[in-house]
Amino acid sequence: MRQEEFQFSRFQSSSTLCFNMKNSNNRNEKDLAESVVCREITQEIVRFGVSQDQLRKIIKLLAFELDDNSMMKEICNAIEGSNKTKLTF
Predict the structure, then answer these.
(1) Which of 23, 32, 67, 83 has its CA 20 to 30 A from that of 73?
(2) Do 4 and 44 share a domain, yes or no?
(3) CA angle, 65 then 66 then 68, to 5°
(4) Which pLDDT value is given to residue 1?
(5) Any idea what DSSP says for residue 68?
(6) pLDDT at 73 over 80
(7) Same-domain check for residues 77 and 63
(8) How many domains does the chain have?
(9) Do residue 31 and residue 70 come from a single domain?
């Protein structure tokens, strides 16, 4: 997989990191590119300097964005179960 096969761009207005695959029908390469983007987003959050409690809240808020309701509930239950105190927003 060559670097020129991917086009990465960051939109300043929304701080969204996106990518487009060029000339690739291979699902593994697309999955890899999506993983790279996800890792960069994660690194940006960590670089921002968040506490462990803030990370839990971010994970829970991201879970609310999932289309799969049962997965959202599982993630929220896991986050709440790992806390000694309930998360409040």
Answers:
(1) 32
(2) yes
(3) 150
(4) 45
(5) -
(6) yes
(7) yes
(8) 2
(9) no
